[in-house]
Amino acid sequence: MSLRRPRARYREAPHRAQPAHVLPVVAGLLLLIGCSQAADDSHAPAEGPTGTPAATNNVELVPVASGLSSPVGIVNAADDSGRLFVVERGGRVRVIDAGGYLRAGPFVNLSDRIVAEWEQGLLGLAFHPDFAANGRLFVDYTRRGDGALVLSELAASRDRASADPASERVLLTIAHPSPFHNGGQLAFGPDGYLYIGVGDGGGEGDPLGSGQNLETLLGKILRIDVDGEPAPGAPYAIPRNNPYAPDGIAPGAGLPEIWAFGLRNPWRFSFDRASGDLYIGDVGQDTWEEIDRQAAASAGGENYGWNAREGNHCYSPLCDRVSAVDPIAEYAHDPGCAVIGGYVYRGSSQPTLAGSYLFGDHCAGTIFSLPAAGRHDPKVVVDSGLSLSAFGEAEDGEIYVVDLAGGGLYRVTIGG
């Protein structure tokens, strides 16, 4: 795919990171572009916000570090260190310390067990909420040899300066039929459970029907308990109030790990640290990109519509037979092509952004803003000129983005 590269708008600042070799970026990586003809929309559900995004011009990106190799994730460890951990698709996790310097050596290198072709690679990282005390962290990647999705636990060193690849304990393996639509996001929710994003397995229009099938883990967000007592022989526990677990809303109606379904490729989700609401960026097929929101009080089991719907619009004949949750926002392709889910801003240094959900598009390099409540048209706040691949939140609530092609890390600010 050809990436549109609008003119960047960011402040000049020293790139203090140490240089590193940048891996070649596969055209169209990640993300997930649907290439089929547009589906019939003659039976579309009630329309939500669909207007052309309005632009504002006060947001800027301040360069923090360069020299990263195909970065696809930004995570903090909530350990009061002020560090940011950047996930590189090839298999390394890099550390940017509180002063903004990229450390020369990786925090961990898993490249010997990962395939990183097309949309594959090291795709997710999450630190246990009590990482400072227990040193536990979790990764999600595509396995060399068969491309299966692997969720693993790793152990950090005593000083928490690194993690040992040999400490890997595999928790979950999901067979994956193609190198596309892997998902891969990991995050601990306010409830202390680990949430896992899984794509539909690839193929135009979800040919396996994964999104609406509750007997597969593909096309879902999963929720597991990594601290509870698992069943004999199981590597993790299932929260009893998961939707299809014994105390859920529909026991036995689906696989017990499933928390939400009807997703094509949830490329980045996050929890609002103030409200606990879950925001999901789900990459569309032909025409529409969407943002979904799940209230913190939800009992789970939401159906976000794929492959019956794409955004607010009918995609397949299933549309008339599926009851789906409407997205809170959508935008059309041209110039965009693949949504990058973001974060609600809860930092203190940019008060005019307070309560705004910031997200972006991989192809257009556009960063959008939404109010944290209600359904709205997204507003363009900056045309970055970057091949955005992930947003991340620091311990202090400040928001960062990474550029897949250029290997840079940037902080979101308000211009003067």
What percentage of amino acids are in beta strands? 25-35%
Low-confidence stretches: 1-55
Q: Sketch the topology as an H/E string, one letter per element.
A: EEEEEEEHEEEEEEEEEEEEEEEEEEEE
Shape: globular
Helix proportion: under 10%
What's the level 1 CATH class of the domain at 69-331?
Answer: Mainly Beta
Radius of gyration: 20 Å
CATH superfamily of the domain at 69-331: TolB, C-terminal domain
| Strand count | 27
Distance between the termini: 36 Å
Round the mean pLDDT to the nearest integer and report it: 88
* Class per helix and strand makeup: mainly beta
**Largest sheet features:** 5 strands, mixed
Which strand order does the major sheet show?
A: 1-24-23-22-21
Tally of DSSP helical segments: 1
Overall CATH architecture of the domain at 69-331 = 6 Propeller
What CATH calls the topology of the domain at 69-331 is: Neuraminidase
